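Hello forum,

I keep getting stuck at the same step: I have a sequence, I want structure tokens, and every attempt I make locally crashes halfway through. Rather than fight my setup again tonight, could one of you with a working pipeline run this one for me? It's a single chain of 260 residues.
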Amino acid sequence: MKINGHNLHVEVHGSDENPSVVFLHHGLGSTRAWRSQVPAFVEVGYRVIAYDRWGYGQSESRPHLDVPGFKDDLADLHSILATCNLQQPALSKSKGATLVGHSDGGTLALYFAEKYPDMVTFLVTVAAHIYLEPKMGPGILGIKAAFEHDDRFRRGMQRAHGEKFEPVFSNWFDGWHKPEAMDWDMRPLLTRIACPALVIQGEDDEHATPQHAIDIAESIPDAELWIEPGAGHMLPQDQPEIFNTRLLRYLSAMYEVRGA
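Reply #2:
Ran it on my machine without issues. Output:
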């Protein structure tokens, strides 16, 4: 799909008459990251949209990331929703979209819900970040070390991104390791998010403390907090049954979806 001058790999599953859930992958991920979620959500009656953000997976290469502001990614998400006929205001529970964002994807979802409130019905963040904690600096360097020395990690990156897996990593590392990112804090805008939200984090997240999720939930007026005991940063991938069951239960309370 041609979006804002670049090609993006966009997958749409399920009937366009069903409530729409948009999955936004993590900072080194792709649509592959949601392979345990997409069929489960389609099966119970959702329309699922998942895409490789610009520079990732099967989407077109990208010179650099615009983190932590996600300006270009916000524009792409807006265009994708419009192209998929989700530009209608979220005046009922069957219009607009539920955004489910993991890590960087969660941060993008937060920005989008604040900027385009009429397009978001419900918001779900998983291990999203809204500032950089002291714990995050060593975590970023640890991921860099894994990329440089762990063959399994590199093979996983190559499966997700093909031949451009090295630029994908460089863009992510350079974006989050730059000095201006150290002072970033998006908490002030969270109070302007108007839709219901579910804020999720693993209690043993390697890259952020539970306080991070607590701060997000306390800042959004209509938010529910879920801290999963014993879980790490990759809860949707590591424990998909727990994640899917709890998320589908949450959404079933909002939508009338068979089997959810």
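The longest helix spans residues 136-149. If your local run keeps crashing, start a new thread with the error log.
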